C-alpha cells in the first residue's frame, strides 16, 4: 500500500511540475534561462 501511495504522490508532483512549466506566463523566464549559456561572451573574465 505504501509504495503505491509514494508512486501516486510522485506522479502528481511530476504532472504538476509539467503543468507549471508549460504555463504561458513562464515563457519569458524560460527564454532568459535558455540564453544564459550564450551570454557568457558578454562578461569580461579577469
Automatic annotation (TrEMBL):
Keywords: Membrane, Transmembrane, Transmembrane helix. The keyword Transmembrane applies. InterPro entries: Cbb3-typ_cyt_oxidase_comp. Pfam families: FixQ (PF05545). The chain crosses the membrane at residues 6-22. This is Cytochrome c oxidase cbb3-type subunit 4. It comes from Dyella japonica. The lineage of its organism: Bacteria, Pseudomonadati, Pseudomonadota, Gammaproteobacteria, Lysobacterales.
Amino acid at each position: 500500500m505504501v509504495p503505491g501511495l509514494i508512486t501516486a504522490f510522485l506522479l502528481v508532483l511530476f504532472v504538476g511540475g509539467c503543468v507549471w512549466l508549460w504555463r504561458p506566463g513562464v515563457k519569458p523566464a524560460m527564454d532568459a534561462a535558455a540564453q544564459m549559456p550564450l551570454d557568457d561572451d558578454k562578461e569580461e573574465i579577469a
